[in-house]
Design brief:
The chain is mainly alpha-helical. The protein has one domain. Helix content is about 80%, strand content about 0%. It is built from twelve helices and two strands. Strands 1-2 form a two-stranded antiparallel ribbon. Strand 1 and strand 2 form a beta hairpin.
Length: about 350
């Protein structure tokens, strides 16, 4: 029978051995996580560098396209067209912009309904205006507008998962409407657009292909009720009744936004609204995928290529500059002031010891 000393020694040795083993396991785990983190950082840095280089290249090419399209004109002609814009058309463009932001609020209201989060109408309107004003002017909506929503939604009691799902749902709604509206216009106006854009295939074929993702999504909502698992996220399939609302909101958003450009062009030009809408969608898509902040230069270059010579280049460039100022810059300034006032109010309440969160 072993003595108490021997038993204690064995127990101590066993404890030390177990502690050493646990320490080695923790060390191996930390090393594994470190390697994974370095790989992810290396991948992110490479991807970020490639995206930055691509964006710079696209921006420079866009500037060259703009310079090429306006060759032979004086920049004074662009300024002259801006001075010719009447107050009526400027107010009409501002009204259409305000209507667009009302529709944009519907994205967030529907997204919050999807995640079953309860927020007051004032908070939904406030966060939607700030988020979309920032993302439309700067670009990269997931990073810019998403950061604003996370800041506001989390302070109002939403979990990170609810915030992320609502942002993804709103983005999905936009792209559903984008493809649905673009595909429908290409199908309905096939003969006109095929000749106008000089497509190698009939426009209705391209429109039908564009509608495929919308039909596929509709089929998923119709036949599947179980959650989808993507990249470790469990996402509930939205009910079928939300699909018309998603498409309708995005279609109204894009139609109103393109109408802002339409009313800022010379009234005597012979560009139809459907053709302008398709041109706007193509230019918007190019700006989004270019990674250039706000699609600056990319959007304008595509619009110049699509609409000249039907619209004189100085008038078109002047109208696009007015569009940037009314649709992008003005909301961004108002959003910055509103968000600054909100944060100041919040900071004052925290400093004075009042823990309540400002309503808006």
């Amino acid at each position: 029978m072993p003595s108490r000393t021997e038993t204690g020694s064995d127990s101590t040795a066993s404890t030390k051995e177990g502690a050493t083993t646990d320490r080695w396991k923790r060390t191996d785990t930390l090393r594994a996580w470190g390697r994974l983190l370095r790989l992810r950082l290396r991948w992110w840095s490479t991807g970020h560098l490639l995206a930055t280089v691509t964006a710079c290249a696209v921006f420079l090419v866009s500037l060259w396209v703009i310079a090429h399209e306006v060759r032979g004109y004086e920049y004074a002609e662009v300024w002259a067209y801006l001075q010719q814009l009447t107050v009526t058309y400027i107010l009409l463009a501002a009204g259409l912009t305000a209507s667009t932001f009302v529709v944009l609020t519907g994205y967030d209201a529907l997204a919050l309904r999807y995640v079953d989060a309860q927020l007051s109408t004032r908070r939904i309107v406030f966060s939607a205006f700030i988020g979309y004003a920032v993302s439309q002017a700067i670009g990269n909506p997931i990073l810019t507008g998403g950061s604003v929503r996370y800041r506001l939604y989390s302070s109002w009691g939403l979990s990170p998962a609810e915030v992320a799902k609502s942002i993804l749902f709103a983005g999905l709604s936009f792209w559903l409407g984008f493809f649905a509206l673009g595909g429908t216009v290409l199908v309905i106006q096939s003969s006109t657009l095929t000749a106008a854009i000089d497509l190698p295939i009939p426009a209705y074929v391209l429109g039908a292909v564009t509608l495929v993702p919308v039909v596929g999504y509709a089929g998923i909502t119709w036949v599947r009720s179980r959650p989808l698992t993507l990249w470790g996220w469990s996402l509930d399939v939205p009910p079928t009744w939300m699909l018309p609302a998603q498409i309708g909101l995005a279609a109204c958003d894009l139609a109103l936004a393109s109408s802002v450009v339409f009313v800022l062009l010379p009234p005597e030009v012979g560009v139809s609204l459907p053709y302008l809408l398709v041109s706007y969608l193509i230019a918007l898509l190019a700006g989004l995928v270019s990674h250039v902040p706000g699609g600056l230069g990319v959007f304008e270059s595509i619009m110049l290529v699509m609409l000249t010579p039907d619209v004189p280049a100085p008038a078109l460039l002047g109208g696009l500059l007015a569009y940037r100022g009314i649709f992008h810059l003005l909301p961004l300034v108002l959003a910055a002031l509103a968000f600054g006032a909100y944060e100041l109010k919040r900071g004052v309440r925290d400093w004075t010891g009042n823990g309540s969160v400002p309503a808006d």
